[in-house]
Design goal:
single chain; about 400 residues; alpha/beta; Helicase, Ruva Protein, domain 3; Rossmann fold; Arc Repressor Mutant, subunit A; 3 domains; five-stranded parallel sheet; three-stranded antiparallel sheet; 17 helices; ExeA_AAA_ATPase_DNA-bind; AAA_16
């Protein structure tokens, strides 16, 4: 029996991958799904959206604060746009806080705001207080020590009232009057749940504080969903910035920029992709940056395994098939058993059905089925539309692909 040394195996495999990557005329795979983190060379288009944000910034610095919602479909680039706002705010000397929404209480959210404010804006990389805040250093460090292990484990002797006082101290005593505190909340759809009503009520007053400018990112229905739970939120977030898909020219530019960054010498514009492969990606991905990036990345992975030097249209088709199935299965794994049963029943009924039809098919009450469907809809895994007097729920393309294929 041949004994394989695991260290040699990993080393040899890594070397083989490096050689295969060079065969594709690439130093690395340049397609990453992570937000751009201030690297503007990969930021494509969005001229009108940036202009709207610049106008909001300009007005806010002179006292006319208008909070905004940034809305668009999944993968459209909302997180990257929030990241651009973050670095633009920091460059101008404003305080900036990046947060991801979840089903949390106002107290937990306040803890996150406080922790990120201090960590991102008041404490230097070496762990010391920034020089302009030295006079408040003792108080800042006292707050920070309570927040280092923030979350549910935060001691009960640090109640919400105390947290609010500490936040008020930072915003009104420490922050300079001419600076804004910019709060960036990603995945804000989580707030549009009845369990988050108290958090929305908190925001109702918090967003009127002087010097606070907030941007909420979420789905196209974000503001409608928020105002159903708390109608007053419409007044607090009056500006809506819509993010449409990239144009075809912008889609080509997105791929071109990333490839150029990873090319070895003598590589052509779209190497290792053929022109037909690039056209296929642009045509099928509908201007959604995440789809474009994932398809390009998966195509490169398949090409490495096959040991080819060119990525043609067939490899792109294979990549799209792999991604379609994998995304669908990831969604199924994320659902509860009851939710999974319902989406599978939807597939068995042809992919679209009413609450009444599903309830009869599964032998459950319409109320139970409706509650589950609402939860799945809020997660973005199914769609709904009114046809006459009935509301139909329809599987997303990702679930349709995997479930309808399974049924076949």
């Amino acid at each position: 029996m041949l004994m394989l040394d695991p260290i040699d195996f990993i080393y040899n495999s890594a070397s083989a991958t490096k050689n295969a990557m060079h065969r594709l005329k690439l130093k690395t795979n340049p397609f990453s799904e992570k937000p751009i983190r201030g690297n503007t060379k990969f930021f494509v288009g969005r001229t009108s959206e940036l202009r709207e944000i610049a106008d909001i910034f300009g007005a806010a610095q002179y006292g006319s604060v208008v909070n905004a919602a940034i809305v668009g479909t999944k993968g459209i680039g909302k997180s990257s746009l929030l990241n651009i706002i973050y670095y633009a705010a920091k460059k101008q000397g404003h305080w900036a806080v990046e947060l991801t929404a979840s089903q949390i209480t106002p107290r937990q959210f306040l803890i996150q705001v406080l922790y990120n404010l201090i960590r991102d804006n008041l404490i230097s990389i070496d762990g010391t207080i920034c020089s302009e805040y030295i006079q408040h250093s003792q108080k800042i460090m006292e707050i920070y020590r309570k927040l280092v292990d923030y979350g549910d484990r935060t001691p009960v002797h640090y109640p919400r009232e105390r947290i609010e006082r500490d936040l008020d101290f930072l915003l009104n005593e420490v922050k300079e009057e001419d600076k804004l505190c910019i709060i960036l909340v990603d995945e804000a759809d989580q707030f549009a749940k009845k369990s988050c009503l108290s958090l929305l009520q908190f925001f109702h007053s918090f967003l009127y504080e002087d010097g606070i400018l907030a941007f909420f990112a979420g789905s196209p229905t974000l503001m409608d969903d928020l105002t159903k739970i708390s109608p007053a939120m419409r007044d607090r977030i009056p500006k809506i910035i819509n993010m449409p898909p990239l144009s075809k020219e912008e889609s080509y530019d997105l791929i071109r920029r990333r490839l150029e960054d990873a090319h070895i010498g003598n590589a052509k514009e779209f190497d290792p992709f053929t022109d037909a492969a690039i056209d296929k990606i642009v045509e099928e991905c509908d201007g959604i940056p995440r789809k474009i990036i994932m398809t390009c990345s998966e195509s490169i992975s398949i090409a490495l395994k096959k040991g080819v030097s060119k990525i043609d249209e067939d490899i792109v088709k294979m990549a799209m098939e792999v991604l379609g199935i994998s995304v669908g299965h990831q969604i199924l794994n994320h659902l509860t058993p009851a939710q999974s049963k319902i989406v599978r029943a939807l597939a068995e009924l042809g992919g679209s059905s009413t609450v009444t039809e599903l309830a009869k098919y599964l032998g459950n009450s319409p109320g139970t089925i409706g509650t589950h469907l609402s939860d799945i809809y809020e997660m973005g895994y199914i769609y709904k539309e009114r046809r006459g007097n009935n509301v139909y729920y329809t599987l997303s393309k990702e679930l349709m692909d995997v479930l309808m294929n399974d049924n076949d």
